[in-house]
Amino acid sequence: LSAELANGRLAMVAIIGMFFQDGLTGSAWGDWALYTESPLRAEASASVSARSPQEEVLAGTGGPFPENFWDPAGLSRNKTEKEMLELRAIELKHGRVAMLACLGWFHAAAGWHPVGDFYIGEYDIIDDNPLISLTQLPIGGIFQVVFTIMVLEWLTTYVTKPPEERPWDLLGWTDVIADEEYPPWKERQLQELNNGRLAMMGIVGLIVQDSLSGEYFKGIGQLCFGNPACEEIKNKFLENPMAGPPIPANPFGLGAYTFPALYPA
Questions:
Q1: With bands split at pLDDT 50, 70 and 90, how would you rate the model's confidence at 33?
Q2: How many Cβ atoms from other residues are within 10 Å of residue 120's Cβ?
Q3: Which residues contact 102 (CB under 8 A, 6 or more apart)?
Q4: Whole-angstrom Cα distance, residue 148 to residue 58?
Q5: Phi, psi (5° rounding) for residue 87?
Q6: What distance, in Å, lies between the first and last C-alpha atoms of the chain?
Q7: CA-to-CA distance for 169 and 211, rounded, in angstroms?
Q8: What is the per-residue pLDDT across 89-99, written as a single tens digit (0 to 9) for each?
Q9: What are the start-end ranges of the H helices in 26-80?
């Protein structure tokens, strides 16, 4: 009942969104390139000519769309060009760390933590709950993590310092990319920024959810995210993998499922 209620709420929001997209773009799935008559696109285009000096520094870098400048907290107010670039570098760094954190969280939640199991295997096995497994980490392991972070910070601050006009370019892409305005390259930069922002919200949500409810998304490593409805599919497929795609049984007696003929007569 709880799942049905939650799915119903999600479906109500989704169908309204699809109606909105279809009305603006003519496509139920939407395409931002088709939003030519949208008041949102018109507002964004009009704001391009009225950018502040702070916005001009990061013009075209997006958030979430290329022509957007997302700063709801007003952190860019009265900032110099150098400070603006530094803020963007900080944002990207936090986003990259958050993406790695989400990846590490899901690996631990799925039960894949061989290094931790190896180090404490003689005493116990690392728990799949990432917050609990953190408390099982030996003090030596904590020192290793902290030392690795310090080394990376030292390298990127003093040894391989990124260019001043691109303080987020830790790997030196500036010297490799021939055209910084190349559309696919700009799109990849935009994807990194948006994915980093999403990951920052995601890892905070995972930590808060685990702290309050103990639910750490254990189903990430299971078929259908641990839904019992898929147990029958999994068991049948494991018993006879050559029988074809695992199809669940028909509980309503509507007849057996058959695949259409490859070459119908």
A1: low
A2: 15
A3: 199, 202, 203, 206
A4: 31
A5: -65, -40
A6: 45
A7: 35
A8: 888 899 999 99
A9: 39-48, 53-57
Whether 145 has a pLDDT exceeding 80, the answer reads yes
Q: Judge contact between 47 and 39, C-beta under 8 A.
A: no
Q: What is the pTM of this model?
A: 0.65
How far is residue 148's CA from residue 73's CA, in Å, rounded to a whole number?
32
pLDDT at 85 over 80: yes
- Residue 73 to residue 1: CA distance in whole angstroms: 40
Cα 114 to Cα 131, 140, 141, 193, 218, distances in angstroms: 17, 17, 14, 31, 17
| Tokens found for residue 131 | 């917050």
Q: Using the structure block, give the residue that is written with the tokens 């190349």.
A: 182
Q: Mean per-residue pLDDT for 114-134?
A: 74
CA distance 73 to 263: 61
Sequence-ordered strand ranges (E) for 19-96: none
Give me the mean pLDDT over the 20-29 stretch.
62
DSSP annotation of 87:
H
What six digits make up the tokens of 154?
Answer: 């030292």
The tokens 């006879």 sit on which residue?
A: 240
Region of poorest pLDDT, from 23-27, 139-143, 197-201, 208-212: 23-27
| Dihedral pair phi/psi, residue 112, rounded to 5° | -105, 90
CA distance 201 to 207: 10
Q: What percent of the chain has pLDDT over 70?
A: 66
What is the spatial distance between Cα 89 and Cα 123, in angstroms, rounded to a whole number?
A: 42
pLDDT for res 170: 77
Rounded Cα gap, residues 167 and 82, in angstroms: 9
Q: Is the pLDDT of residue 253 over 50?
A: no
Q: Which of 150, 145, 162 is nearest to 92 (CA)?
A: 162
